[in-house]
Specification:
The chain has 19 helices and 17 strands. By secondary structure, it is α+β, with helices and mostly antiparallel strands.
Length: about 475
Amino acid sequence: MTFFRKPLLALVALAAAASVHAETIRIALGTQDTTINCATGGLLIRELKLLDKYLPKDGKYKGATYDIQWKNFTSGAPLTNEMVADKLDIGAMADFPGSANGAAFQKAGKKSLFITVLSGSTLGSGNGIVVPNGSSIKSISELRGKTISVPFASTAHGMLLRALKSQGIDPEKDVNIITQAPEVAGPALQANKIEAHADFVPFAELFPYRGIARKIFDGAQANAPTYHGSLVSAEYAKKYPEIVTAYLRAAIEADRLFAAEPEKYSELIEKVTGIEAPVNYLFHGPLGLQTRDFTWKPEYRQALKTSIDTLHFLKRTDVDLDVNSFIDDRFIRDAFKQSGLNYEARLKNYDKLALKANDAVTGKPITDTQRVAGLWVKGEPKVRHYATIEGALADLRTIEQGGKVARAVYVHDLIHRIKLFGNLSWYAIDAKGQLSAFLQKDAAAAYAKTNSGKLLDFAAARALAKAPR
């Protein structure tokens, strides 16, 4: 019996090892395709099959089979419900629903981890407030006594509360705030059933682009940092840390691809979601409204604390969530290291995706981006860039005379440095014939007055624009 014992034990050990290696490992991921800030953590990884490229295939994962499951959501709350119920392992959402995710896990006697930022703005751009096209309201100060809808407990909700308070408007007494999802708010705006709507990426830009609303306020004006990121069940992360890192490496790869060809991947997002490519590009192209950034900047950590405090104020949770243990940057740091990137350097870098282009008319390199503009001409794969707004608008006339049309005109707000749709902006022309763009009419008028200039709408700006010599 002793003679056979060692070989038998060896066979048992081999069999046990084989059963581990032959394990089928579930990777269930929840994404929000129409919330385009989540694209690099969901849609692009799925559509380009990037996760398979980075999943571990050796060590304890040798011989393992991966069961990759994707499920799409329109908001963070139902995604959280499925994560808490162990139906999902990883999910992408904004700071407010993310904090609600952590609270829900904690209430269930479990824990989730906020493992990375995907895209956001330390300034707050991305969230915004719109009004019906026929409304006379031009600024947030005019919303007193009005009915405003917003997806409750969203990052836009937090922005709205902060913006109202900055104008001395009491959110509980001076306005009527109701809850509405974007798909409900769009028709409500068209039917004038609400007087304003606050929303997150991309709806404060999408509604105006589609001609069903007019934007009056951008989150950058409230200086309320906002972001979307990814969370994971702590239990799953403990069991499969290498898989979590692999997911983040796939997200980093998606970001690299998007940065290299923003028009191409803006088109892919349109194909999958129906959200027009020019809107996607507005957010994620060079100098876009949002910065794809995977590092936990102090502003994003503070935004999470603010969201937890606001959820308490809204009586949406009574859980005290420890931000320092909820945010876990170990996995994204590992992903950076394995990808040959410097996390600390990126953490200190606040730059938007750079514009590296020559003026479409003069051919000269664009070095000053203060008044830069762009045209995405229908039928052309790339956006044309211009050093000046007047140069872009003059070339637009030439393009239209040639029988072509622009899918979008891009300009930048001179004050807040946020990217705007040119046809929805206000302008001031100074004594030198130089055009500057603004989100708000009052700001454009004030600038024109200060600089001996003139206030213009888009049509007037087009008529006066002269090509640079």
